């Protein structure tokens, strides 16, 4: 008798249960449930681990190479290597990201019709539908960037785009997804698509090039130059979206890997109106930053790696149930807070920063980053522990950001104490404990000038919906005031980076 053509899949901890075609690739199925494939499914990163609770997923030699024998014995597998050949119950090591939207009020000049603002991130998308006469948000939608199945970070996206029609494929995927997001927004607000007049999209340089159809090739090699072609304007119709009166604008980038998400952040903070020295830092895998006043700005980007997001950390995970998200020192010991108050299953970015800050405080970690007792790991709350490798990953990430900011301030001719405001944007910037960030030396400005700034890219995209007619001219003027600094070209970069990798004593 032939086997049924469908098999049943159960996903934990979300409890989702559904049927799929027998033999379907788990990468395709799980991606739709919020699972990321950091290395693009090439069996190189372990980021897609799943544990088989019921059923059978065979181990292949490539999985045995990456997973420890203990993990294999406990049922852990790489989802990117597996197919649903029979009924399966799987525990996912990661699940859907919390995407940061924005609900702050701002000054605006009323306009007719509706507008849509989109923050196009490397991993996630956030979009809002606004009434342009009141600036009221009528609907919010968030989702995953469908390109993420081809790699989690911008450089793996660039390498996919460079191979065999990759750029066209990535362009089609993201245009379809944003069109779908717009349709969902309109449907949930019961709004007429013909009422949409404006749509603004912001994103990093790679997202910009991939959406706009600008060749990604110059971003694939030194000196990593972005195309300097200003505001990109489309009609919704040419993008295949059914909003007959909508103009779609992708805001311009600042240069190299500093994109229009940072330009939007400048509009949001608003750094471009400030007479006093301010900074905006996006603490992402690609750390982007800008320092300046309304007259002059310097910007840069730095590869910080994914440690702040809990990735490449031995028991790293998202800020979700079971994550140690905060650690405090009480009576000379580390006290861990676990999301959901249950048994811990991992450590998220804010917990990692707190744990290292606390361990420095009680002398368990030395300023060099070594564990004081010479061990290779220290327990946090069983079974979660902090390893020497985790501390090293954090040093690399915080060193890259701190060195970037230090060089920008130096080139400006200022000290960290001269900043009147330091805005930390992005999800991680919102949740990080500022005292811990100072303790590990990620930031050295006084705590009171450091502000969690939320999703500044989305707020800036919303503000841009209301900009006056000669918007292109306004962006040109703004971009003339911004100079891009190639950090690695600074003769002192290496020395500063190494210094910044140490922790303050
Ligand atoms: S090992 Fe990287 S996505 Fe599967």
Give an overview in words.
This protein is α/β, with parallel strands linked by helices and 505 residues long. The protein has a domain at 6-92: Beta-grasp domain (Ubiquitin-like (UB roll), Roll), CATH 3.10.20. It is 29% helix and 25% strand. The chain is built from 14 helices and 24 strands. The strands form 6 sheets. A 6-stranded mixed beta sheet has the order 10-9-8-11-13-12, sandwiched between helices. The protein is globular and about 65 Å long. It starts with 5 loop residues before the first strand and ends with a helix. The model has no long low-confidence stretch (mean pLDDT 89). It binds FE2/S2 (inorganic) cluster (FES). FE2/S2 (inorganic) cluster (FES) is lined by residues 37-39, 41, 43-48, 78, 80.
What is the fold's blueprint, element by element?
Blueprint: E1 6-12, E2 16-21, E3 24-25, H1 26-31, E4 49-54, H2 61-66, H3 69-73, E5 76-78, E6 83-84, E7 88-92, E8 114-120, E9 124-131, E10 136-144, H4 154-162, H5 166-188, E11 196-203, H6 205-212, E12 232-235, E13 247-250, H7 260-268, E14 278-282, E15 286-292, E16 297-303, E17 323-330, E18 333-338, E19 346-347, H8 349-361, E20 377-381, E21 384-387, H9 388-412, E22 421-425, H10 426-431, H11 434-439, E23 450-454, H12 456-464, H13 471-480, E24 482-484, H14 493-501
Parallel strand pairs: 1-7, 8-11, 11-13, 14-22, 16-24, 17-19, 22-23
Antiparallel strand pairs: 1-2, 3-6, 4-5, 4-7, 8-9, 9-10, 12-13, 14-15, 15-16, 17-18, 20-21
This protein binds FE2/S2 (inorganic) cluster (FES).
